Amino acid sequence: MRSRIGSRVFLALLALYFALPLVAALLYSLATKWGDTVLPSGYTLHWWVDVFSRPEVSGALGRSLVLTAVTLAIDVLLVVPAAYWSVVHNPRIGSVVQTVTVIPFAIPWVVIAAGLQLIVKDTVPQLFGTFWLLAAATAAIAFPFLYWAVENSLLAADARRLSEAAATCGAHPMVTLVRVVLPAIRGGIVSGSLLVAATAMNEFALAKVLVGTRYETLPLWSARVFTSRTGNDPNALAVITIFTFGLLFALSALVVWLGRGKSASSTLALARTSSSAEKG
Amino acid sequence: MSHVVLNGVTKRYGAQLALDAVDVSVDKGEMLALLGPSGCGKTTLLRCIAGLNDADAGTISIGGADVTRMPARKRPIGMVFQSYALFPNLSAAKNVAFPLTVRRRERKETAARVEELLALVGLEEHGHKLPNQLSGGQQQRVALARALAPDPEVLLLDEPLSALDAQVRTRLRDEVRRIQHQVGITTVFVTHDQSEALAISDRVAVMNAGRIEQCATPPEVYAAPSTRFAAGFVGNRNTLELPVADGRVAWGGAFDVEAPSGERALCLFRPEDVEIGADGPGLAATVDVKVFLGAVTRVYATCDGTTVFADVPSRSAAGLEDGQKVFVRVAPEHVQVFAA
Ligand SMILES: Nc1ncnc2c1ncn2[C@@H]1O[C@H](COP(=O)(O)OP(=O)(O)OP(=O)(O)O)[C@@H](O)[C@H]1O
Ligand SMILES: [Mg+2]
Fold this sequence. Notes:
The complex is a heterodimer of chains A (280) and B (340).
Chain A: H1 2-30, H2 46-52, H3 55-89, H4 91-106, H5 109-123, H6 131-156, H7 159-168, H8 173-184, H9 186-202, H10 205-210, H11 218-227, H12 234-258, H13 265-279
Chain B: E1 2-13, E2 16-27, E3 31-35, H1 42-50, E4 57-62, E5 65-66, E6 77-80, H2 92-102, H3 107-120, H4 136-148, E7 154-158, H5 166-183, E8 186-191, H6 194-200, E9 203-208, E10 211-216, H7 218-223, H8 228-233, E11 238-245, E12 248-251, E13 255-258, E14 264-269, E15 274-277, E16 283-292, E17 296-303, E18 306-313, H9 314-317, E19 325-330, E20 336-339
Parallel strand pairs in B: 3-8, 3-9, 6-7, 7-8
Antiparallel strand pairs in B: 1-2, 1-4, 4-5, 9-10, 11-12, 11-14, 12-13, 14-20, 15-19, 16-17, 16-19, 17-18
Helix pairs in contact in B: 2-3, 2-4, 3-4
The complex binds adenosine-5'-triphosphate (ATP) and magnesium ion (MG).
């Protein structure tokens, strides 16, 4: 009995710890004025309307969405077949890929960006400072989320055995991939994609180093406003923070709902990446 | 007429020899059981026939055509896996239809065939269900129907019953046999359960360490194992190691048979071939304990520190007491002798 109360209190404190900053940001985005009182003195939608009517914000939002879509496309097209190949046809390359997936976490993204910058300058200068370099780099740092999710569901679905069964049924490997394997791992692809989307949506370091003002994404815009000398704009920042969080949260809630609980863990994981990426 | 012929099929995993120049042939319409202990290479052999493993050496032919280098999807086979391996996103009927749809059969023809097969395995009512809505036994029936769907020349079964509980297992075992007879399909059936192998196959291939030790009908394998391994693996036997003298080996007055060359010989005999009597002739022994098994009673008896077990009809065993002095004998034709 006692420990149950204890664990509830602990959970409540944890929830509070995660929720408080969000609640504060939400209130700030709706506050007319928030001075020395506990709660704001009045509420308004003014900031929301104001922020989204600025062309620089809608532009940055659009650029972030394009970056997210392109990153996602690159990762899904590269990672899903690679994971399939390594699990089903050649487990030996699996350990190599596993090692590679750790790199984006072992090396700070700023360092990765700087390294890329140096290499690209010397080898393919045409790519230097372009959107495509940013998209490729973002895809490279976000791919482990998708790889792990897809690999796990391939193993869980025993894709190897299923592929063999399909082969004895006379199916070509491409038919097997499309008709047997992909439907069996849909949940993993979707939840992995969510994490990739969250990463791309919130990524700051790569964008800052690789493209800077040439392709201002939402996180770049936020950082610029935040550090601006002409007076930062906390209400606008609160609006964008809540908006980004809400967008990703709605997306993952949709996925959870569509997957009927199969990928319930992705919402939490998503919230975690989006908050940690914000810090980066 | 030999339908499936394997010639010197060899398979290595690194340093390990999983198949050691296996020669075996299966006749048209015959059911061959591959029987052997865990790790002896049964699955590897079956997968070589299916084309899921490449043999390192040797040839495999099906219906006179060399398929050694043919990929699995082109071979005229159907396979049932131990873990069923049904496609989880497809209904039972769609699973059965899968081999037909990948062959681009006409829709009407496919539907009729699926219905026919579901009826054959007794699942007419369950075609719309997903695999996870079916019991293990039902899933295995679907897997069998799927394997049979394209009318393959050879059916391959890898321990299809071992994930099922005992009762379902016996029922499905007999059903597999019925279906195999009805369809008349050449079948290779892998199992490590000897009663399963003896019950439903036309011939049993006893495997050990990547080789086939004996390949014969179930009664032959049971009564006259040709190697020491087969004798020890099939059935439950008493095993005694005895000295050889003048080309013969004897155990007191219990038996006296011809021996192979060598100083010692291994004598194996079945419990049901051991006679226990109150009087001689025979070897004097003492009854240790009796275990009632229904129709027979297993009697453990000791003489000179050696314990043997005998299966005695329960009616005659009723007269035996623990500790009673008895005489044990075995008819010479029931003793298998191998060099020790
Ligand atoms: N993919 C593999 N890699 C390495 N060794 C393998 C592989 N598959 C099988 N082996 C080895 O080959 C030998 C034969 O294996 P196989 O699976 O054919 O045995 P089995 O007779 O089917 O056994 P079981 O009754 O346990 O299924 C075993 O010793 C096994 O360890
Ligand atoms: Mg096996």
